[in-house]
Design a protein that fits this description.
With about 400 residues, the protein is α+β, with helices and mostly antiparallel strands. It contains 10 helices and 10 strands. Helix 3 runs antiparallel to helix 7, helix 6 runs parallel beside helix 8 and helix 7 packs antiparallel against helix 8. The longest helix has about 35 residues.
Length: about 400
């Protein structure tokens, strides 16, 4: 079968620096990430060495202030980097997105002193973060969380369990939302908790249908003492911080979804143009050609949607509705495109000898994380019609 190499995505980038950055990311993806992706995912290997490389090359702090080790890149550029990484291996692309999410609270709401002390190591010093909002009994209803922080002099004592934590057990720091006051969203406060603090532990990673190289685990906080200097923002501001972080994080998920979808399309096109049946490539048959055309169109639409939302964010304009739309459309697109890619490959698509089945399994989780797509529809509807009446 002829080897048809996929063509790089033709990107609209705002600066020469951004074009050089994408070239760097593609080189790292082709040399260090993609060749090992299938084998390491099958083995459940977490590629910490890749994240160390990304930190060393400045790719773990792209949208943050260069004063603290970031790269001052707009979200329009950062998200396209995520897409490239996710196309090579979703564990890496999503991992960078989660690390960026975990760093958001301190980078956006932290005091100057906190940022000077902690951000350089978080953004470029080799550390890896995790974001702790969900709990075993509070997922979509995150405001009902039960993890509690009780003040004890100049410290807080945190007790509770967080669930579905990407990088649980391998992260160096956790951004933790804990209840410090009344029930509901106004009683929640954000904390920066070092992973090596006494009382922090992680359960065994969940056994998942995809993204086996990315550990997802419960994280337990058993009387963890955290100084008040690690409280982020005001008491009771944590839920607002969490929602603000998720607006940006959903754009990261959208970009990762388009990366997976693009990888699946490339695989499908390469196979269809090389596979001969009835004396000609199966890409000659109209039914399959139309399927490929629809896949490509939905990917382009998703890319345009997440970039439009990113440009609103970069301009300082409201973008929460557009972020929810992008997350919804892009992840649904990834699920449809990867399913169709398996169909294009036929029986081969159902085997682990080709990456299409892995893309399909990985795409599913993107419809769930950082707010299910049903929650995204609720968010969008509230922007259109106002809050629900009770």
């Amino acid at each position: 079968m002829p080897d048809r190499a996929p063509q790089p995505v033709d990107r609209q980038l705002p600066t020469d620096e951004a074009r050089d950055l994408i070239s760097l990311v593609r080189d790292i993806a082709q040399r260090e990430i993609a060749p090992k992706a299938a084998e390491e995912e099958d083995a459940g290997h977490f590629p910490r060495e890749v994240f160390t490389l990304l930190s060393r090359t400045g790719l773990l702090g792209l949208p943050y202030d260069s004063e603290y080790g970031g790269a001052d890149q707009p979200y329009e550029v950062y998200l396209q980097v995520l897409e490239e990484l996710a196309a090579a291996r979703l564990t890496v692309g999503l991992g960078v997105s989660v690390h960026t999410l975990a760093s958001y609270a301190l980078a956006t709401y932290g005091s100057k002193e906190q940022q000077v002390e902690h951000l350089p190591a978080m953004l470029g010093g080799g550390l890896l973060g995790a974001y702790c909002l969900s709990e075993p009994s509070s997922g979509s209803d995150a405001a009902s969380l039960r993890t509690r922080a009780v003040r004890d002099g100049d410290n807080w004592v945190i007790t509770g369990t967080k669930a579905w934590i990407t990088h649980g057990g391998v992260a160096d720091f956790y951004t933790v939302m804990a209840r410090t006051g009344e029930e509901g969203p106004r009683g929640i406060t954000a904390f920066l908790v070092p992973a090596d603090a006494d009382g922090v532990s992680a359960a065994a990673p969940e056994k998942k249908m995809g993204m086996k190289g990315s550990p997802t685990a419960q994280v337990h906080f058993d009387g963890v003492r955290v100084p008040d200097a690690r409280r982020i923002g005001d008491e009771g501001q944590g839920f607002a911080i969490a929602l603000s972080a998720l607006d940006s994080g959903r754009l990261g998920i959208a970009a990762c979804a388009i990366g997976v979808a693009q990888a699946a399309l490339d695989e499908a096109v390469g196979y269809a143009t090389g596979r001969l049946q009835f004396g000609r490539p199966i890409a000659d048959f109209q039914g399959l050609r139309f399927m490929l055309a629809d896949m490509a169109t939905q990917i382009e639409a998703g890319r345009a949607l997440y970039l439009a939302a990113a440009r609103l964010r970069d301009a300082g304009r409201p973008f929460a509705k557009q972020a929810a739309m992008a997350k919804l459309h892009c992840t649904d697109t990834a699920m449809k495109v990867t399913t169709d890619a398996v169909q294009v490959l036929g029986g081969y698509g159902y085997t682990a000898d080709f990456p299409a089945e892995r893309y399909m399994r990985e795409a599913k989780v993107l419809q769930i994380v950082e707010g299910t797509n049903q929650i995204q529809r609720m968010v969008i509807a509230r922007h259109l019609a106002g809050p629900e009446t009770r």
